[in-house]
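Figure-free illustration: sequence to structure, shown twice.
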Amino acid sequence: MLDEELGTHHGLSWEDFVLLDALHDAAGGLPLPQLATRTGVRSSGC
């Protein structure tokens, strides 16, 4: 339900939101392997 609401109102998927939140927490920068680990997404997906 949250994924649908994010997509409808903001054009984001849940994965996009998690990725942006991780970057925000890291002050905008993380090495790709750490970002992938924090978000649960493969490095190629980031």
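We now fold a second protein in the same way, so the two outputs can be compared directly.
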Amino acid sequence: MVLAVERLLEELKARFDVPVFTKVPRYEAPGLFIRVDAGEPRASTVVSEDTLMAVQVYGGDLDETITLIGRLRQYLMDECYRVNPHIVWWREEAGPHEFPDPDTDTHTRYQLTGVLTTTLDLPA
């Protein structure tokens, strides 16, 4: 079974030219990167599930960070479900908004949250 977070990680890595992680790198984080965090999935139909996701952009430069979170938001709302057959829909819950990370003083963090609907892997 492929989890929604795996589907989104795969998609964002293919579409954006910055590193994409599920955890902030402990040492020497890149200057600009995306972090994806997922909640528990819930079945929405017999062939799909909904997962609450937090998608964050960390950056050392405020303008780059805001530009990337804007591009990411647009992609999630308008394109990801068109290009990836396993992503059915993105419904934004909140954001983007500044979400300071107390563990870093070198990066600004912006976050948006939403529900990602993905297909389930069904046995053949």
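Summary for the second example: DSSP finds three helices and five strands in the chain.
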